[in-house]
Amino acid sequence: MYYNLFGSRVYIGSATWIFAIILVVLYLIAGAKILKKGGDSGWKILIPIYGNYCLYKVARSESIFWGTILLSVTTSLLSRLILSAQRTVGTIFLIAVGIISLILAWKYASNMADAFGKGKGFALGLFLLSPIFMLILGFGSAEYQYGYSHSEQKTETVDDDF
Question: Are 104 and 67 in contact (CB under 8 A)?
């Protein structure tokens, strides 16, 4: 039994927990496969924040990752302060943060689809049904378009023989 913000009791059934665990496991499996296709090690997805950062690197969206982190920290620090001071300003602030978060999530999904040669329709699928479309990217025939991720720069050997 859990309590929501309004103090009323909320029961979360075991089916909900099982569904949530299944989604997390699917996300981890898909993320590992995507990292491998992007030239990174799949185990990195298991490290909570770093795993997501590696996925953003594969999509070449590091700035979006840092923007999302900054937005989350700022919202966490300011939401109570703003909501307690003035509800209208706080509500507008939180709505603006939500809209910015959606824009960043769409841009990341679009970049991830582009990184694997997929179009805007696939990006919409990544945006709305991320675990399913990440599994399609990971297990499907899509190839990574950039050749390697930023973390594994391929070095060329120079032949000094003239």
Answer: yes
* Cα–Cα nearest to 93, from 110, 107, 106, 79: 79
Q: Is 107 exposed, middle or buried, given 0-12, 13-18 or 19+ CB atoms closer than 10 A?
A: middle
Burial of 55 (0-12, 13-18, 19+ CB in 10 A): buried
**How many other C-beta atoms lie within 10 A of the C-beta of residue 64?**
18
- Cα–Cα distance measured from residue 54 to residue 68, given in angstroms and rounded to the nearest whole number: 14
User: Residue 152: its pLDDT value, please?
Assistant: 47
Q: Is residue 53 within 8 Å of 31, Cβ to Cβ?
A: no
CA distance linking residue 139 with residue 134, whole number of Å? 9
Taking the chain (162 residues) in runs of 10, the rounded mean pLDDT of each run is: 57 78 90 91 92 93 94 83 71 86 95 93 94 90 75 45 39
Which residues on neighbouring strands pair with residue 3, listed in sequence order?
A: 9
Q: Which two tokens stand for residue 154?
A: 């391929």
SS3 assignment, position 3: strand
Which tokens belong to 51? Answer: 């795993």
Written as six digits, the tokens of 92 are 């507008």
Q: What pLDDT does 2 receive?
A: 58
DSSP 7-40: S-EE---HHHHHHHHHHHHHHHHHHHHHHHHTTS
